[in-house]
Amino acid sequence: MTIHSTVLITGASSGIGATYAERFAKRGHNLVLVARDKARLETLATRLRQEHAVNIEVLQADLTKVGDVETVEARLREDSKIGTLINNAGVAQSGGFLEQTGEDISQLIALNTTALARLAGAIAPRLAAAGDGAIINIGSVVGLAPEFGMSVYGATKAFVLFLSQGLNLELSSKGVYVQAVLPAATRTEIWERAGIDINSLAEVMEVGELVDAALIGFDRRELVTIPPLFNESRWETLQAARQTLLGDIRQTHAAERYQTAS
Ligand SMILES: NC(=O)c1ccc[n+]([C@@H]2O[C@H](COP(=O)([O-])OP(=O)(O)OC[C@H]3O[C@@H](n4cnc5c(N)ncnc54)[C@H](OP(=O)(O)O)[C@@H]3O)[C@@H](O)[C@H]2O)c1
């Protein structure tokens, strides 16, 4: 990534996004901070400008609204100083599938997947043409675990991982680095916003530790960074098993167990 290029961070008003903002300001990057709560973004921006002498712009947007997504897309397409996109804004799910309304499902998918993919789509052609830049997508270990009972949220996070792996294959040869970060439970407001008492969780990572670990993965140019995964070979084994499965998919005929006896 170009030294000191501008970093655009979605969901920068709290939690993981606000912590990324602090860390990149400390590294000397100018920032564009995106979220709905303008007052909170301004407070963070004022503090970081004072502490780190960087330029910080606040861009208020509700990324569930198409018009606001288009505004951020335009910025990503047109501002050649922006060299890194951190696709972080996200909401979790409150309640199980049977309690979710159609509107809940739409909002979750609009923010966690549609906005994320559109913003990546807005910046990627410019970065590919420049042969430089990075896209960081915040997924979740929930995207690996239907067992966690957060089906729609987990599905959006599985999308984030898949999209990141696909974009890496399409863009890395063009000089664009894509990173998927998969946190587990981290101490932020996301839990309260979803109506879950964080104290009911057995284990929680502090947000600073999570982002610092994710940045070590970023500096190493890892494709997938899972800070809470202790044995890294488990991930490699999973990917190898997936490749083996793909190698056994043949297209001309159905597998024997699905063939009718004739
Ligand atoms: N904390 C965890 O345990 C955990 C675990 C795995 C993955 N993650 C992922 O980490 C990411 C950041 O979450 P967090 O834990 O830092 O939670 P958070 O503190 O609740 O932050 C969420 C951010 O997204 C923004 N946001 C929410 N709705 C938005 C909308 N409609 N339009 C634009 N921005 C919106 C919020 O700002 P405004 O309200 O100002 O808009 C806030 O800045 C999410 O993608 C989440 O899924 C979190």
Automatic annotation (TrEMBL):
Superkingdom, taxonomy of origin: Bacteria
Protein's UniProt name: SDR family oxidoreductase
SMART domains: PKS_KR
Lineage: Bacteria, Pseudomonadati, Pseudomonadota, Gammaproteobacteria, Pseudomonadales
Pfam families for the chain: adh_short (PF00106)
InterPro entries: KR_dom, NAD(P)-bd_dom_sf, SDR_fam
SUPFAM superfamilies in UniProt: NAD(P)-binding Rossmann-fold domains (SSF51735)
UniProt key word Cell wall biogenesis/degradation: no
Alphabetized Gene3D superfamilies for the sequence: NAD(P)-binding Rossmann-like Domain
Residues in Ketoreductase domain copies: 5-188
Entry keyword set: Oxidoreductase
